[in-house]
Amino acid sequence: MDRIALVGGTQLKGSIPISGAKNSALKLQAASLLTSEPLVLTNMPELADTRFMVELLEQLGVTCFWPKASGRLSMHAEDITSTIAPYDLVRKMRATFNVLGPLLARVGHATVSLPGGCAIGARPVDLHLKAFEAMGADIVIEGGYVKAAALRGLKGAKIVFPFVSVGATEHAMLAATLAKGETVLENAAREPEIGDIAHCLVAMGAKIDGIGTSTLRIQGVDELKGTTWSVIPDRIEAGSYACCVAAAGGEVTLTHVVPETISSLIDVLQRAGVEVEVGPDWVKITRDPAVPIKPVDIDTQPYPGFPTDTQAQVMALMTRANGASIFRENIFENRYMHAPELRRLGADISVRGSEAVVRGVDTLRGAPVMATDLRASVSLIIAGLMAEGETIISRVYHLDRGFERLEAKLSGCGAQIRRLSGSEE
Ligand code: UD1
């Protein structure tokens, strides 16, 4: 298993290009099942998760072509030869579950394993399944698999989500594009990735109104066509590197960003005393490391609120603030698994339920630590950049799921970071 070794104390200088958004790419990959024509995605992030999705699509009969380092994935679901998504693939990554809706909408049936994914709480899929039932599907759960059938096709329905779910909104939207009649999704999530997926579906011939709002109206069409679509830049990756620069100090321009998609993080960084300059598709982060970080409280919320996916990164930054900050995690239970690892570096963090109090300390010291989930692992990089001495992070496969060329991007700005290949955990 690979590990990452980094030595803190170096300021970062230069620029970091931001990759395509993993969370959008994965659902766009699932959208390829909706059409018999090729769907080509550009600005594709090359990640363990997006590779898993290709593996699954290929098992379903989709012809995929993705030359290494091309950033261009072509998917052609001319004939769907299987409608079964096996446990082995779905357990590795929750988003593979999102093939269920497209298969159901195009072929009329699907058998998909219940998902696994990051260990950040229970993460059920009840809202997804209720949406398909409302659209006329028969659903049975048997032996860890969801067996869904709508042999005469899905029907449009009014679906009011009891709370905001990104996955359920996207999944229902994908399926509704080929349902008969109108589907209305109320209390829909408004994350930028959903807008990206919706606009791609429209380019494929779908009829969707209300994109970017909490009510989506989808008029089903008989078929969708292929298109070429550029994946939106990854706001979580951008936010993570912004925190790296804020932590280490220095001056770095993040390029290929949609600045408004990270405005809640920009606001937090500015309140923490970090300088942020915003351009049309770039953001420059500047911090003098001699000036202390000011504490800022964080309350995670659905978009446009502060994202749960950058909570761990800001917590790492706040470990060196000159005061206490309070974190409230409102989206997932059990999403403070990074706290004990940050404590190994000397952080002062106490967690009670969904609340964490972080009291800034003067010094962090490098130590061996373990990545526990995708976003938590990058928080260890951020803390390591501020720590004295060497931090060694094991289980970096969590990082490889969501961050493309992380060591190269950071070392390009002067960070002392390297991958130790194949070493023991
Ligand atoms: C997506 C993102 C993830 C992000 C999250 C919230 C992907 C691949 N992942 O996850 O990075 O952290 O949005 O922004 O896009 N819930 C239910 N029943 C359901 C569905 C969800 O109870 O059927 C709960 C979840 O357990 C969670 C909350 O709803 O507590 C929100 O989850 P959701 O927005 O669905 O997150 P994901 O789509 O899984």
From TrEMBL:
The UniProt entry annotates the active site at: 118 (proton donor)
Question: Which compartment or compartments is the protein found in?
Answer: Cytoplasm
Boundaries of every Enolpyruvate transferase domain copy: 8-410
Q: Which GO terms describe its cellular component?
A: cytoplasm
Q: Which GO terms describe its molecular function?
A: UDP-N-acetylglucosamine 1-carboxyvinyltransferase activity
Binding of UDP-N-acetyl-alpha-D-glucosamine occurs at 94, 123-127, 309, 331
For this entry, the protein name equals UDP-N-acetylglucosamine 1-carboxyvinyltransferase
Question: Where, in this chain's numbering, is phosphoenolpyruvate bound?
Answer: 22-23
Record keywords = Cell cycle, Cell division, Cell shape, Cell wall biogenesis/degradation, Cytoplasm, Peptidoglycan synthesis, Pyruvate, Transferase
An example GO biological process term is: regulation of cell shape
Q: What is its EC number?
A: 2.5.1.7
Q: What HAMAP family does the database record attribute to this sequence?
A: MurA (MF_00111)
The gene designation is murA
What role does it play? Cell wall formation. Adds enolpyruvyl to UDP-N-acetylglucosamine.
Q: Report whether Transferase shows up as a keyword of the record.
A: yes
What class does this enzyme belong to in the EC scheme?
transferase
